[in-house]
Amino acid sequence: METILVVDDEKNYLLVMATLLSDEGYEVLTAESAEEAVGFLDGTQFDLVLTDMKMPRMDGIELLTRIKAARPEVPVIMMTAFGTVGKAVEAMKKGAFDYVTKPFQNEELMMTIRKALEMSRLMRENRQMAEALRERFSYGNIIGKSKPMQEIYRLIEKVADTRANVLISGESGTGKELIAKAIHYQSPRAQGPFVAVNCSALAETLLESELFGHEKGAFTDAHSTRKGRFELANGGTLFLDEIGEMPLGLQAKLLRVLQEREFERVGGNVTIKVDVRLVAASNRDLKQESLQGRFREDLFYRLNVIQVHVPPLRERSEDIPLLVAHFIKKASTEAGRSGLRAAPETLRRIYAYPWPGNVRELENALERAVILSSGDTIEPGDLPEDLQDYQEPQAQGRDAGGENVGAGFEVDLGDFIPLEAKLNDVLEIIEKSMILRAMDQTDQVQAHAAQLLGIKKNVMQYKMKKYPPETLHDKDYLSLDVDRYIPPHLGLNEALDAVEKQMILRALDRAGNVQSHAADLLGVNKKVMGYKMKKYGLA
Predict the structure, then answer these.
(1) Strand pairing class (262-264; 271-273)
(2) Full-prediction pTM beyond 0.70?
């Protein structure tokens, strides 16, 4: 049973409301003042607040502010007299779900309450689903739901139980060490040590001692015997990062260790046997390096038993929203702040930026933004200067006024949209998916979602009526991976135009450039087809 808190300074009104709502099957709490209602925020559970606007001392808007600060997920409906409708509109801008004007019809009130509770349930389910997705798509500390990351998770599961050497390739900052740790902690060696060495950080003589250890007196300053990383990793995993930087002379010794699983310390003659699983990583193309004579070919093949390629962040843009949410939450927790979120324009800039430094650069940028932000919102000015100054090669989508400001995006239909799909069905599914994604990324605030999508607020309101919240999660007969193929920074209209144009071009190609046949393939009439051909300059 759902609980409704009713707040009004008129006792008779409270009694009437309590009776009405109880008869409708709701549990009712009542408060005769806003101050009394604030007391319910500390520990009392309720699903909706129905409050009068005009009350002595603390009014309904101030109460709304207190509720949203403490329980942002709880919908609030304002009750107002006809003469204070302007105040009710102000309340909606501050987060109220809706308002009803006194005196109201009972059915009108109950319909508004049912809509608010349904929205609340959907938001709660969204949060639960988001948490489930984070757990599903987080492999250890690896965040991602994109197809390339799913392939990496499957590969980790397959290779973790083996002793096979693994070579992880990818640009700097993509998270290669996290992949190595995931392999280790999913393996039977998880209880053994995970030892990491950065091969680019040490000179050849120091790196040799670091890996294999040394005996006392082996060289100047070798005042005592020291175990190397191979010994320390015995029974576990040794991770050699930036192995492409290892000098050729040392590569020969490493090759022998991998073949024989034994070595001698520097300056020693005692053979030491070890049981070590080796995982190496490089931001270089080691195959090409070996062809150029800068890396031993035999060592490359010994390392490259299993290769895991970690794609750059720009090639898995659908993971950026998950990473942004994760890093903001992480940095906020470390800074002792809660409820911090990014403004729509901040998200737009983050999604549009190419991230040459990959995940590491994104994490550092968001940590900086959290520290520099004031209030509960990360603004564009809190981002590093590179992001603030970045200009996209092509203008994105349409502005808030709906005017076309660029058509630089082209979608590869490929596996995205089946040949038999009809044009209007595809556009509707993409529109619904992009609206749902924008709402999720902006904590269900319609105005912010509209800004992120590059459309006006009234257009967003129309579309929310067109697709009521309860229908946004409905399964469509077509399953389209919008998150993968439509970048999160793209404007709604630009995405729809790009898909529509490519579907028309594909249909024309299949129909031998016969418009009427292409129209049949797309499920539109000839007149509509002619209009769209002119729209995209294809006529």
Answers:
(1) antiparallel
(2) no
Q: How far apart are CA 509 and CA 151, in angstroms?
A: 33
- Provide CB contacts within 8 A for 176, sequence distance 6+: 168, 169, 170, 241, 281, 310
Q: What's the rounded Cα separation, in Å, for the pair 29 and 25?
A: 13
For the chain, the C-alpha Rg in angstroms (whole number) is 30
- The separation between the first and the last C-alpha atoms of the chain, rounded to the nearest angstrom, is 60
Q: Which two tokens stand for residue 310?
A: 């970690």
Give the CA distances from residue 11 to residues 4, 27, 238, 308, in Å, rounded to whole numbers and listed in that order.
16, 18, 73, 69
| For range 215-228, the mean pLDDT | 87
Look at residues 259, 199, 196 and name the one whose alpha carbon lies nearest to residue 230.
196
Q: Which of 196, 125, 175 is nearest to 283 (CA)?
A: 175
pLDDT at 137 over 60: no
- Cα dihedral across residues 526, 528, 534, 536: positive or negative: negative
Identify the pLDDT of residue 405: 34
CB contact set of 162 (below 8 Å; sequence gap of 6+): 306
Q: What is the pLDDT of residue 130?
A: 54
CB–CB of 403/370 below 8 Å?
no
What distance in Å separates the CA atoms of residue 408 and residue 414, rounded to the nearest whole number? 19
pLDDT in tens, 297-355: 999 999 999 999 999 999 998 899 889 989 999 999 999 988 888 888 898 889 889 99
Secondary structure of 118-173 in HEC code, one letter for each residue:
HHHHHHHHHHHHHHHHHHHHEECCEECCCHHHHHHHHHHHHHCCCCCCEEEECCCC
What pLDDT score was predicted for residue 289? 94
Query: Nearest-CA neighbor of 48 among 107, 134, 114?
Result: 114
Q: Are 149 and 289 in contact (CB under 8 A)?
A: no
Report how far residue 173's alpha carbon sits from residue 166's, in angstroms, rounded to the nearest whole number. Answer: 19
Contacts for 401 with CB less than 8 Å, ≥ 6 apart: 456
Residue keyed to tokens 């509209």: 450
Q: What is the dihedral of CA 285, 289, 291, 296, to 10 degrees?
A: -120
